[in-house]
Amino acid sequence: AVIVGVELDAEVLRVARENFDLDALEIEVCEMDALQFLREDKRKFDLIIDDVFAGYARSVKKPRWLPQPGFRLARRRLQPGGLLVTNALCREAKYLQQGLQRLFPALLRLRVSDYENEIFLAGPTKCLSSFQERAEVQSLQDITVERPGAVGPLLPRSIKDSRYVRLGRLALSLSLTALLRVWRQK
């Protein structure tokens, strides 16, 4: 598999190289803004994982460009049958869910008990139905996999942009990549 990682903060990449052996993963790493990457890079991908956040500590939020135009641009970068996975804070989940439901035929939500994040998988109905069936058969312990219902009108978010991302978000993205690799191999 060809894996491309996009990270804005050079310091995050430095720490990842020192502490997570990033270079040993043999992935392409682009040091740039994710929105810029989505606009400029024309390659198509089978899977896109969004773990983009702006701010620090308790002020961390999705940047202003998510869900729009970010999810629309990500959908254009997907191969037919491709999946978009996005990490969302619970307080922003409905807003992001609404954006995904407008763009993709099917959506799944993964919730981990006692954790403030939710993971959305967006893509073809057949693929997500297969994932949901596997999840029901296998024991995912504290992870709930569900099809979220429709979201009504929401008030616009107020998000202050920041150019920094937390190292923990990079680690979570790498973990999600490994999890999805294992899932695809089964």
Automatic annotation (TrEMBL):
The keyword Nucleotidyltransferase does not apply. The keyword Glycoprotein does not apply. Keywords: Polyamine biosynthesis. It comes from the Eukaryota. This is Methyltransferase domain-containing protein.
